[in-house]
Amino acid sequence: MGASGRKKTSKSRTKGGARRRTSSSPRKSKRRVYKRSPNVLSKMKRGIRRRVNAVKRWRWQAYARASYWVAVLAIWALMGVGGIAFYFAMDLPDTSTLWTVNHRPSITLIDRRGETIATHGLSYGLPVTIEDLPPYVPQAVLAIEDRRFYHHIGIDAIGLARAAVANWQAGRIVQGGSTITQQLAKNLFLTPERNIKRKIQEVMLALWLEQRFTKDQILSLYLNRVYLGAGAYGIDAASTRYFGKTAARVTLSEAALLAGLLKAPSRYSPTNSKRLSQERTELVLDKMVEVGFLTPLERARADQTPPRLAQPSSTKNVNYFVDWIVDQIPDYIGETNADLVVETTLDMNVQRQAEKALELSLARDGKALNVSEGAVLTLSPQGEVRAMIGGRSYRYSQYNRVTQARRQPGSAFKPFVYLSAIEDGLTPQSLVEDAPIRIGNWSPKNFSKTYRGRITLQEALAHSVNTAAVRLAQDVGSSAIVRTAERLGVLSPLTANRSLALGTSEVTMLELVAAYAVFANGGRFVAPHGLTRIATKDGAVLYERENYVQPVILSLGDVAAMNDMLRETVRVGTGRRAQLTGRPVAGKTGTSQDSRDAWFIGYTADLVTGVWVGNDNFSPMKNVTGGRVPAIIWRDIMQPAQAVYAVRDLPGTGASRIARTDRDGNAVSRFFSRVLNGFGPDNVNATP
Q1: Is the pLDDT of residue 83 over 60?
Q2: Distance of CA 397 to the CA centre of its chain
Q3: Which active-site residues does the annotation give?
């Protein structure tokens, strides 16, 4: 075929320069169909399977690697937790003595009539179980402390969450998440400090307790060990302390009160705040209704029978005496772990009256007269403490102004001056000059700013004449006066200077009142004391005071002379406000410089009482003298206290005047004085 006869084709180039064939004439295109052989399909399927298997293998390997590392991390975590647990477990306390109660011994003090004064130290009640108690006792505790107690394992996740929400909503901690088991673990084995170590140990011990004991046993342990205020550990001790009965006999409202104490025993104690205690008790009863332990009707009945607190026999300030006694016990019996019963000389009737009289006087006149403090001591003539008030409020100040404070006695020291003069040969009717006196650059003045001239010793003492006392001190000598005071029991250091006669050397109330008791008992030495017997609660006697005769240190004639003069002081002198109806009274007022101290020390044949008022910072009072506030307090104490005693004359006065000594030369009467005195020496330096 020729060139014209051949099919013409044209060539064109693609964009990339490659040639492509184009037909000059239209031509119907045909789709190219490829047919694959079975071998090809088989290969494709095998490839797909390989890819799928590869993905599966990769996933399995990934899972395997992840599981491996998770397992490794878990093992390390367990090892870490185990190591931490082992670390804290190494420091866990011994749990072998769980049922053993180790406590400091308690000391129960009773007065001379058998009335309980106070229980010093911690009190533990008899062990009780849940079966021993009315059902509402443990129910009250569970309602307010751990309502899910019987459903958790020692740790309550729900309770923790509920507490967290409540605390978050309140913006402060208003609820705790600790279970009763955790609280028991803390109370039994751990310290109250707050840190992560103690919390971890608390959890570990709680879990151990749950595995070791039944729920009832745990709850019983808790109720026997928990602190409920007022020194009481355990619900039985608290029931006895607050209600005067065992825990098995408490009412529903009383059980609610006890349960309410668990959160804050001091804050909600009925002895500290009746209002807060009542509010807390009502909250516990409401919770018992909410949980289902009580019906609304039972709740209403509980309101009709409120808790009845036992009336404490002690007073708010008797602890001054309690502390004084407790400090002496080791000196008598040494150290002991036994619970003790201590019989004392205190008379609670006199103690109550003394507290009442002191508080009424200070409340009435204290602010106007700038008097903030006071102290009272009452002794028997033999030195037995009948009442002791070391300050206006033991709660705010435990400083005992009877036994610890040294204050200037002022004119209350003058009896030692006059006794020295009597022993030197003078009598109450001897004369002394009341006139201005100068010793060097010192010139003492009388309180009245007046002078009486020549007066008797009896008149001078009755009206507390300063110039007369200074003249007598010059005559007998300051050293002799110091020896006289020391012989009568004044142990504080006395300065034998020219102002000694006016009471410028500081003394304690205890020794000053004991010295006056020598006049009340007829001249025998007085060792003030408050202990008569110490025994264990089982009845074993550890100490008992012997009845021994106190040594004679004054002749009965000299005692009679002093009693005559000091009785005149109350009858017509500075102590007139201390007079008692129909009963002989002797005593002496005392006021230190600028009215910083005011005293009245007085006595009958049965009781000796000293009263002091002043300020701890030694600031002056407003014209307060011993014959005003202290004498009135003394009278208000002694008038009811003397009601149980028959009227008797003071030693050497009244019917016993035959025993008086006449120092002006009547040797016969002096001889009879020595005979009636058992031939005791006039001056005997003796110790108790």
Answers
A1: no
A2: 11
A3: 145, 411
